[in-house]
Amino acid sequence: MSPFLLKFVSHQKKFKMSPAAKYAIRAIKYFFYFTFLLALFLTVLVLAGVVEGNIETMFRGGYRSLLSIALMFICVSSVYPIFGFVRKSAIVPGEYRDIRDGIVDAMESRGYVLETEEGENLSFRLKSTLNKISRMYEDRITFTRELGGFSVEGLRKDAIRIIYGIESRFRKDEE
Fold first, then answer.
1. For the whole model, what pTM was predicted?
2. Are residue 154 and residue 99 in the same domain, yes or no?
3. Residues 73-85 pLDDT 10s
4. Which of 8, 25, 90, 156 could form a disulfide with 86 if both were Cys (CB 3.0 to 4.6 A apart)?
5. Which of 62, 83, 104 is the last residue in one of the domains?
6. Are 115 and 13 in contact (CB under 8 A)?
7. Number of domains in the chain
């Protein structure tokens, strides 16, 4: 990744993007991610000698198939951000000053570091560079304070795991 792009991606929090712009950037990232995975998969097949290295013999339609594959990737990547990212509520009873440290500890135990804290809103990023790259730098989890807990936003699988972990942690602390 170029140094400029890496700097832009890592300092993305300074820019206030509209939801439509975030969605478009995520869709473009997924298009390139799917394309990279296909190229990697095909390279492994060619190096293993399973298929020839010629596109005309690799795909039934030859080079015309690449257009079909690209259109399919465009369709999938344009829909994927709808299902891949979520905003869900986490029920965490208590005053912010009493639960803040527990949330930060829970996130740190999952490999996240506190990025920003604005009032009662928290933002976390993954500590591991390898995990950041595997998530295409879409690793931010935000906690927005709401009545009875927080609204948690991020990658669906990460946000749901974090919500269940934090809710069960604070339920155990209450008992």
1. 0.74
2. yes
3. 999 999 988 888 9
4. 156
5. 83
6. yes
7. 2
Listed residue (35, 10, 5) closest to 140, CA to CA? 10
Of the residues 50, 83, 116, which one is the last residue of a structural domain? 83
pLDDT at 7 > cutoff 80: no
C-alpha torsion angle, residues 102, 103, 105, 107 (rounded to 10): 160
| pLDDT tens-digit series, residues 44-74 | 999 998 888 888 888 888 889 999 999 999 9
Tell me the one-letter amino acid at 141: I
Sign of CA dihedral 28, 59, 134, 150: positive
CATH at 90: 3.30.160
CA 1 to chain CA centroid, nearest Å? 17
The DSSP H or E segment spanning 122 is: strand 121-126
CB 163 within 8 A of CB 143: no
Integer CA distances (angstroms), 59 to 8, 74, 91, 92, 99, in order: 37, 19, 51, 53, 56
Instruction: Please say whether the beta carbons of 167 and 91 come within 8 A.
Output: yes
CA neighbor of 120 nearest in space, from 140, 147, 139 = 147
- Residue 35: which domain range? 3-83
